[in-house]
């Protein structure tokens, strides 16, 4: 949790705050107030987090309040002790790198079911009392913060903030669904082709396969279909092997994020 919060602090103090770009959330509000009135980012963020913690205490359950309490106090502390340095002069490059770094920090917190507090509180309240999806309300809050860039830092800062939000979203989605991505192949072939493919996999490839019973929609014949999971780097090799055994084999390929419950050499 501490690593995730420090990564968020680095993204703010190294990339967003020096460029006067507020990308949403309580930290975005703090950047706007620093730009407009020269208020200290960490002090503003602490004030916002304390106010929202009080709101959470009265409107949410105690366990939720405890979960967000630590991040609400530690992130402002890390922002205070992490120097604010303009490490990238180009604003576009700064928000690209900042968005990526921010996404890594937030994803670490999500992985351990932790929170940095701030504007994650209002969506929880809206979900509890009005059944509004947290993702939708958080998007609206972030959008409002981004719009205020126009009045504080100009239209360019607004465009950069939106761009950075998009980068953060895609990187978070990629990290949260797993970095160790694989491919799953569903293969249908003739009986002789499948038998040869099964023999080849068992003899030469360090992984198993699963056999499904299937029926041809046109012929109505009972068939077998193989499910084979491979690492991305081994995908082309497996595809070439299938085509070598049966050039007319029917193959469906999916990208998958994670495999749980068995290692690849034992899926049978």
UniProtKB/TrEMBL annotation:
The chain crosses the membrane at residues 12-33, 39-60, 67-86, 92-110, 130-151, 157-175. One of its GO terms (cellular component) is plasma membrane. The keyword Transmembrane applies. Pfam families: DUF2179, YitT_membrane. Keywords: Cell membrane, Membrane, Transmembrane, Transmembrane helix. Residues 207-261 form the DUF2179 domain. It is a multi-pass membrane protein. Its main location: membrane. It comes from the Bacteria. It is found in: Cell membrane. PANTHER family: UPF0750 MEMBRANE PROTEIN YITE, UPF0750 MEMBRANE PROTEIN YITT-RELATED. This is DUF2179 domain-containing protein. It comes from Dellaglioa algida DSM 15638.
